[in-house]
Design brief:
Number of helices: 5
Helix content: 25-40%
Largest sheet: 6 strands, mixed
Number of strands: 6
Order of helices and strands: HHEEHEHEEEH
Strand order of the largest sheet: 2-1-6-5-4-3
Length: 133
Amino acid sequence: MVDDFRRTVLEKDVPGILATLSPDVTFHSPVMPKPYRSRAAVAPLLTALAEVFEDFTYTAEFDGRSIESVRSTAGSPRHALEFTATVDGKSITGMDVLATGDDGLISEVTVLVRPVTAAHSLARLVGRRMTEA
């Protein structure tokens, strides 16, 4: 499912991304204070992110077979996809950390980004789109 997630993100295929997610997915956004829970709750956020990120590219992948993943609180394998993009003219580097459930679907997504100036731009632009939705 991680391969499908990566492919659909690169294609900006929001319905395709949603199909890789568990119905009760938890999505931790770097720009929103509370996690989103469920595909329905995540859909508008993914749409906003697809609109805001420019030149989005995955640059590395780390699989969840490390000792740390065995001790993860979710108890499921973890994968991390490192990315670069542009947001409002600012370069951004980030990571999508994915946990998969027993059904193979992605049960949790945590997005991390840097630098803080780009994260602020991301928060402003995503927040604007979320209020317009």
